[in-house]
Amino acid sequence: MSEPSLSVPPFFHSSPEEVRALCRSNSAGTVTAGMAAGFIQANLVILPKAYARDFAEFCRLNPKPCPIVGTSKPGEFDTAALGRNLDIRTDLPLYRIWRDGVLTDEVTDIVSCWQDDLVVFALGCSFSFENAFMACHVPLRHFETGLGVSMYRTNIACTPVGPFSGPVVVSMRPFRSRDLIKATEISSRIPLAHGGPIQIGFPEDIGITDIHQPDYGTPTEIRPHELPAFWACGVTPQAVLEASCLPFAITHAPGAMLVTDIPIPDYKNLTEEYSGEII
Questions:
Q1: Quick one: which of 1, 178, 186, 226 is 20 to 30 A from 92 by CA?
Q2: What digits encode the pLDDT tens for the residues 125-179?
């Protein structure tokens, strides 16, 4: 007998434009997980034009943690390719301001600090494949507990370009074996959301000495008969910006993503294929 579907968050079936309107009015909360299923959510990095070419090359050479979803022209804050009626300055729940590699502020909009030379990089986010997991009845511990996902700096070095270098950051989710197989197969089919995991079961192999002490987020319980799976994470660019000491940069705050109008390729067929295998 099939089990009932897992409950889904309130804005799971909302359109991206509806979610962005909520963000613009500060009504979406500070985390976009579980919103606008079927569409790509994106991490945000905004840099002065002088650094944009190097950062674009950095992302090209490090596609697992930094998959490029879209970019803007200098000074452009309403990139139509990312969303209809989009204003990148207001349509995320929370932003971070970086100066000389130091996080100096978190704000709900960046209108007052916008500059005509700024270039936007939208980079894929694991929230996209998490929504696919939920649609396919793959349980997620952090939704069950209401806590954030655990994230760790690793001993895997990004390929450096110009001023940009640093460690790959990973996010961790624990699964029983059958759910893990399904999660790996689903995420591998969404490369714009980091693709499949880069490590399973052996955190020490990627430099994680204490899985109970994440570098970002909150600790996640790993229950008996579960394995931890690690995906490349969009927090990587923030670790890189911290190391690069750029005079000025803007990012999203962790969990507060840009919800784009870009559909996950073949999402309907993907979820139909896997939702019949309810565990």
A1: 186
A2: 999 999 999 999 999 998 888 888 999 999 999 999 999 999 999 999 999 999 9
CA distances from 199 to 11, 15, 118, 236 (A): 31, 33, 35, 16
DSSP secondary structure letter of residue 159:
P
Tell me the C-alpha distance between 122 and 119, whole Å: 10
Question: Which residues have C-beta within 8 Å of that of residue 112, sequence separation ≥ 6?
Answer: none
Question: What range does the domain containing 38 cover?
Answer: 16-275
> Which token pair is 184?
């790996």
Q: Is this model's pTM higher than 0.85 or not?
A: yes
Is 202 part of a structural domain of the chain?
yes
d(C-alpha 109, C-alpha 103), whole Å: 16
The CATH number covering residue 209 comes to 3.30.2040.10
User: In this structure, which amino acid lies at residue 37?
Assistant: A
Q: Find the farthest-apart pair of alpha carbons in the chain and give their distance in angstroms, rounded.
A: 59
First to last CA, the chain: 10
How is residue 158 annotated by DSSP? P
**Strand order in 167-175's β-sheet?**
150-157, 167-175, 227-232, 199-200
Q: Would you say residue 203 lies in a domain?
A: yes
Inside any domain, residue 9: no
